[in-house]
Design brief:
The structure is a homodimer. The C terminus of chain A is likely disordered. Chain A has about 400 residues and is α/β, with parallel strands linked by helices. The first copy, chain A, has three domains: about 45 residues, no CATH class; about 120 residues, Response regulator (Rossmann fold, 3-Layer(aba) Sandwich), CATH 3.40.50; about 200 residues, Response regulator (Rossmann fold, 3-Layer(aba) Sandwich). In chain A, strand 3, helix 7 and strand 4 form a beta-alpha-beta unit. In chain A, strands 2-1-3-4-5-11 form a six-stranded parallel β-sheet, with helices on one face. Chain A has 14 helices and twelve strands. At the A-B interface, helix 4, helix 5, strand 2, helix 11 and helix 12 of A face helix 4, helix 5, strand 2, helix 11 and helix 12 of B. The structure holds a DNA duplex (30 and 30 nucleotides).
Amino acid sequence: MAKATIEEVANLAGVSPSSVSRSLRDVGGVSAKTTERVRAAAEQLGYSASPAASRLATGRTGTLAIVMPNLTRWFFAELLGGVEQVVREAGLDLLVHNLGDTETRQGYFSSGLLRKRVDGVLLVTLALTEPEIDALMALDVPVCMVGTDVESFSSIRIDDVQSASTAVRHLVNLGHRRIGLISGAPDEPMHYTVPVHRRLGYRAALEAAGIPADRDLEVHGDFTIRGGDEATTQLLGQGELPTAIFAESDEMAFGALRALRRVGLQVPADISVIGFDDHPMAEYFDLTTISQDVREQGRQVAQQLVAAVSRPDGAPVRRLHAPTRLVVRGTTAVLGAEPRRAPSLAGNRTVPGQGAQHQSPDKGRRGSGPPALARQSATDQKERRGQRPLAT
Amino acid sequence: MAKATIEEVANLAGVSPSSVSRSLRDVGGVSAKTTERVRAAAEQLGYSASPAASRLATGRTGTLAIVMPNLTRWFFAELLGGVEQVVREAGLDLLVHNLGDTETRQGYFSSGLLRKRVDGVLLVTLALTEPEIDALMALDVPVCMVGTDVESFSSIRIDDVQSASTAVRHLVNLGHRRIGLISGAPDEPMHYTVPVHRRLGYRAALEAAGIPADRDLEVHGDFTIRGGDEATTQLLGQGELPTAIFAESDEMAFGALRALRRVGLQVPADISVIGFDDHPMAEYFDLTTISQDVREQGRQVAQQLVAAVSRPDGAPVRRLHAPTRLVVRGTTAVLGAEPRRAPSLAGNRTVPGQGAQHQSPDKGRRGSGPPALARQSATDQKERRGQRPLAT
DNA sequence: GCGGCAGGCGCAAGCGCTTGCGGTCCTTTT
DNA sequence: AAAAGGACCGCAAGCGCTTGCGCCTGCCGC
């Protein structure tokens, strides 16, 4: 029953294969009556068209590929979830390619692995080299990106620079002036742009606040818990302590919390910590952070790609920015505030709702510097109040 | 250059398309010299065969599908990582299908979504109903499963019953007799077997130790942090407190730790907690747990499936058990031991290496009850010593 | 030196679908 | 009422590859 061919359906319905084909895909040209008969026959035979054959005949593969540098880290898994949903609902297949290690990536785009195989490609967090861009364009299918962008392709990503600035500005507004940075991968095996941008945002915020840069305050954490831990230890080992730390990812912030706790520093009484991403565990740690809706980004970029592949003329390139918001929780506090009760990082209270939150000012506001900062200040305060968790 | 056809290659090489086809896939029947010429021509044209065409001609799709109930939870993402690697290295494509909600699952297997589309299917953690099994068999392709098993298909999974028993036995051996259980999904939307089995293991271990069952000690946690938190609160709210808790997943154990800390109970001085899975965060929380190598399970099952699809005669059904091991960390202690220093759940020390660990006795040792228990006891002690973390 | 054998190679027939083109037949339009 | 126009439908030619089957060499054995 699974192997019925279009001809059998045609015979059963008493029509030609052409009509079967046409009715089943409801392109026009078939009367309602015939369509109905065909439908019934197909149903009866459990018929579904062979993808291989129709691909060959139409030249369209009905398949999209998503290419990611990692599958297991939260960000990527979450994104994949959003993408998969949209793609499935569009009736397309999704191929997953993981460029885990540098060797796999090496030559991946020029190898014909994607050629004639997909109608569209989704690139995640991959900053492309020139030859890679060329190879992709040679594929002659729509390409969308998330997390990074290049001129030629549609993309969606957060504004890492602005968002990182928002995070640091939050600390500045709390009175901090000695702010450490824990950044991601120092050597960029995958050409990540994220650490670069978030660092730029950090420096920009400091500069805007008139705080001189101090390179000793910038350490590397490798985007992992352990890395954040070690980076923090390094930060604590040198001269004057920072009063606040901005970690470029929540995972590294977790590591920082652990390191701080180990040496007996209390958060946020002695030192404030802010992360980035709003990892599911961040709420657990009551970590102040920059939140982004990763799944939604996945959905959006997938929709964009789906739309692009289904329109014969090339779709217009659209480079979107996804919003971020500052989520103030319990790991940041006003500098020098009297210590509250004994610090406890892990859930001595819960954050019930979302509280008042804030769309980061990352669209169409470039270069409006000082006023933005002032406004930001006010916003932070409001959020903080709105966010104040209830005791459970 | 990307759209070269086999005929063009043939012309350039001065041979027939047949010879091109044969040389490029090195089936025999072509002289070395010709093969060489063809290779060169193909190279020059950047030729790669159209998958659609060869699929149609051969009837093989070169594609595998992995069907999972979730993509974003750590376990599934990790598994997918292992599977993807093997499948890619085998030169096959991987389709990912997420049966996130019950509606999506409803009728998924009977809908022709997989029909004529894949050479093999990988089912993750899905307990199948009879009609679903039938629909899968009707696909007439190899099917492998991980996390659950049925008679007809190859599979790999841990022995949830034995492993849960090991966890609880560990607590028993530490002197605990009042042991709470936080179990997974009570209503089984996806027909999970995991919570059922782990609970069976829990009960079996208690029974083996002569401890009477107490249904009040069994609460539901939904496999989430929050669920574990709430379940623990529930557990604490009723009569005599347990002295130890077995959570069926690490996430729920994290929630339990939070709940305990909130009410001021110290772990492990006042109460011991053991989890299950060895989630990456478990080390961070210094959580004693049952460890399984999820990625490796993914690799193995993928290898099995790859082997099955590439052999024309049906591959033999093999139902494997993956090993688990008890990893003793800092959240479990001897009942009534004098309190150690002030408890601190979040990383006041690190666990540097793996320490001495233990293959759970889940292969070929069924029914060897008491001796196993005795041995287990000894082993536990040794592990505990070997595992003792160093201060950093 | 001749029959036979086998390795190399090309022919052509598909694989199962889609689609341009034309043929019917039934409505409209004039 | 005749002609023009549609609406429907089938024919057949592909889509680009694989593969069974013959043919043609060259080479071996007797």
